[in-house]
Amino acid sequence: MEKRIPKKTYRNIMNSLGGGTVPREGLGYIAVGREKEIDSLLRDTEIIQDGGATFRFVVGDYGSGKTFLLQTIKEYCVKNNFIVAEADLSPDRALIGNSTKKKGLATYRELMANVSNKTNQSGRALAKVLESWVNNMFARAAIQMSQNPFGETNIERIAETLMLEDCAKLQSLAYGYEFTMGLRLFWKASRTSDMSEKMTGQENVLRWFRGEFKTNQEAKKELGINATVQDENWFDYIVLWAQFFVLAGYKGFIVLIDELAYICNTANGITRQNNYEKILMMYNAALQGKVENLGIIMSGIPKSIYDKKKGIFSYEAMRSRLSTGSYQDPSIVNMMTPIIKVLPLTREEMYVLLEKLAEIHAQLNEYEKVITEDEMIDFVKLAYLKRETTFITPRTMIRDFIQILDVKRQNPDKGIRDILAAYKFAVDEEQNYEEIDD
After folding, report:
1. Taking the CA atoms of the chain, what radius of gyration do you get in angstroms?
2. Is 29 helix (H, G, I), strand (E, B) or coil?
3. pLDDT per position as a tens digit, 33-71
4. Axis-axis angle for helices 347-365, 7-18 (nearest 10)
């Protein structure tokens, strides 16, 4: 490798991949064979930056690289001044629940807990973004004063006027009045000289922004805001956040939602349809120009999309929007459709990926690379020979390869071919979620 990766980064890469998970940083160093998918999704960021909105589905089998693709997009976006929030659906998180199980609200809370920007790429950036917005008002006020030296001389008053102008731009949106009340309260708390009062005031407003107030009455009593984020309206607040983040100096807002299989496997058919109706509402809002500076990417296994009994295609309104023709020639791909399919890596791409990992493994452990090109070719050939093609995914190949390298390092007297001859290749069993009671 030409560029040496910081040791902390490649330790994170190897630990994550060895455990079958996707690292949260350094993905560009190991990205292989996803150029078309990445280019297509990055074109969407241009639309978002220009004030538009996008909605995509990323589909692939377990271990095929869906999460890797999403994290690669996230890494690019935060480094290029976008805000990214991510959430995995689960038995407790969906897009909408019922009167007792507020699963949509739980997803919103997860998204707000995982807001990332350039300086906070692992989440928890929401408070920092709000604080930066406050500070930015004074930078803007100072510029305004320098351009008009005979005008207002009180920078605090100028900054507050600019803050109110920002708030006015959000007023026309659903819940915009309540949202801007929260912004003004955060501003007020930020400007107090009492540190204890400042921290308490900011935290109370952050609790409201994160959807942690249970009732309107509680929010009214604590903050004077007569509304809260609820299971039914949380997407309205996502739309507001997209606009606010642009006002705060960012290019746009990207929302990543993974594990659609949990909706597909909900036992209650009405609940499933309600969730798909919520997806339809979000999809229409994004593509009909009702929202700005917002990109939404949802991902799942093929069943969660294409199954006509329980997947998204069971909801006719979504199926009619997402269905497209297909090509008999598998080499023909179209990345401009709403659904991006994560295709298997070729053997050549798999080899390039393993070559990168062998180099990182050697750098991390500070030794000369212990596997030759011919031995890596032997590994790839044997892995394909020992497994059914359906079980060959980047996840299983990577995990096996790292184990081989670890064993070789601990047993330097053993040859790679001897280790391969004694090794039983792992097979990822397809995850079968049990039906989830709503």
Report:
1. 25
2. helix
3. 677 888 888 899 999 999 999 999 999 888 777 888 888
4. 130
